[in-house]
Amino acid sequence: MPDSVRTRRLRLFVGAGLSFALVLSVGGAAMAAGAADPGVVHTSAGAVRGTTTPTMDEYLGIPYAEPPTGAERWQRPIPKRPWTGVLDATRFGANCPQPASPYGSASTSEDCLHLNVYAPRGTRPGSRLPTMVWIHGGAFDYGESDDFDPAPLVAHGIVVVTLNYRLGALGFLASPALEGRARSASDSGSASESGSGSGDYGLLDQQLALRWVQSDIAAFGGDRDSVTLAGESAGGLSVLAQVVSPRARGLFRRAIVESGTYQLEQDSLSAAEAKDAAFVAKTGCANAAGGVAACLRGLPVATILADQNQAGYRPNVDPDVLPSTIGAALQAGSFGHVQVLLGTNKDEFSLFVAQDEFLKVLPPVTAANYVSDIATALGVSQQTAIAVAQEYPVSTYPSPQLALTAVGTDGVFACNAVTADEALARHTRVYGYQFSDEKAPQRYLPPAGFPQGASHTSELSYLFDVKAPFPGILSGAQVLLADQMQQYWTGFVKDARPRSAAGPRWPRMSAAGAQPMINLATPAPVPRTDFAAEHHCAFWNGSRA
């Protein structure tokens, strides 16, 4: 199925015209009053002093790169230069530039390439604890590392690192004007780099953070030889991109992909540059006397945020960073053969249907406009939308919103996951899941006029203490499910085998056939083999154009 069928709707996450005035407090959020000093940790760039909570040692806002400002904007990130004295690592750093949204606080600070390290309280240097590196989601346009408190995971004896990376046009603009200067091996940490990274600067940031982990995590008690790269939504797609990228080989041994298979095909560099030419023209830099690149690098951040493509940004194929699409690389076996835990949520698309209605992006879904809403949601022709509607008759669902939810969930998320699972399983160990708790708290939007079920992002509250606009309290049964999920996730981080003391055995996937996976729901997780049938994957992954 064409890329537009599978992905266009994801670009609204969240698209034009967000009117939220949401500014979430970050300074000192992880510090308890009177918290003790866990001591000074020495990194390769300098000493840092963190803070201690009742359960964790926390080191917040550690810079892993020089600020990508001025002449360094739209360049490969430069490792942070050494500092003198002791850096205060008791407060989060600024999040990367973005408009206000339910998914991140507004920011115009380019000095944002920071990471946070969380270790069990009292962890000593050299403890060699398995380490998970978390990449936040937000459609590559929104989000921040400090929204995810990993205390529930750290309690199981692992170290967790969360990171910021460049977003929107600043992280993913592709332009011929930006291809002129590549970093040397001493700048970037790899002797095999040659391309510019045009359009993939955010991915380069993630890779530099992973190199920081290789250099420095031992000082915090982590194990550089036992790193799991994990992420959700755009973070999950980032994980897949790093699995595929030759530049990331050897930087991690395991991968966790949550709701990240929605976009297995990427634009070529030339196609991305053609699309992004509209941004360059809008800024007035296309014919700048001093050169396009210099003009772009001199723009105020506020201007970039105002002029960037409201349909969103995403990685593109680049000769160095991402030499082929993710889908093609997986099918060819041309990727780092790390062990993978990968899954989706049962009602992924309900978040986007609810978002449209809440923001009044589109009129409410009705039986009368159902076909046209399918065409808009998937970016397909009216003829194709009619065929989809015949596969998903609106009359068979409790509401038109739930019919469209099923369409988007299956066509964008679930069946792409099946494709990725089968390709990965031909070359490495893969564990699949579906998160299906129909009463999961909805943290990012107010209640909608229809049940959202296990929507996009809803599994996060079972793994992290999530900072989000709306409170979500887990019931007793959900707390038990959360504990089992945390055991599965940290078991995988420790030795690539998701295990829970109270939960069932999690079956390994095969390259073809019934595709066994685990269904994560109350009252208890259970293995299942009917995922592809439930989500109409013969229809979506068949021969229909």
Descriptive notes:
The chain is α/β, with parallel strands linked by helices. The protein contains 17 helices and 16 strands. A hairpin with a 5-residue loop joins strand 15 (517-520) and strand 16.
Relevant terms:
545 residues, alpha/beta, Rossmann fold, 2 domains, 11-stranded mixed beta sheet, 17 helices, 14% strand, disordered N terminus
- Return the structural class: alpha/beta
Q: Give me the count of strands.
A: 16
CATH topology call of the largest domain: Rossmann fold
What's the helical proportion of residues? Answer: 25-40%
- The global form is globular
CATH architecture of the largest domain: 3-Layer(aba) Sandwich
Main sheet properties: 11 strands, mixed
Number of domains: 2
Side-by-side strand order of the widest sheet: 3-4-6-9-7-10-11-12-13-15-16
Q: What is the end-to-end distance?
A: 6 Å
Task: Name the poorly predicted regions.
Answer: 1-36, 181-194
Taken as a percent bin, the fraction of beta residues is: 5-15%
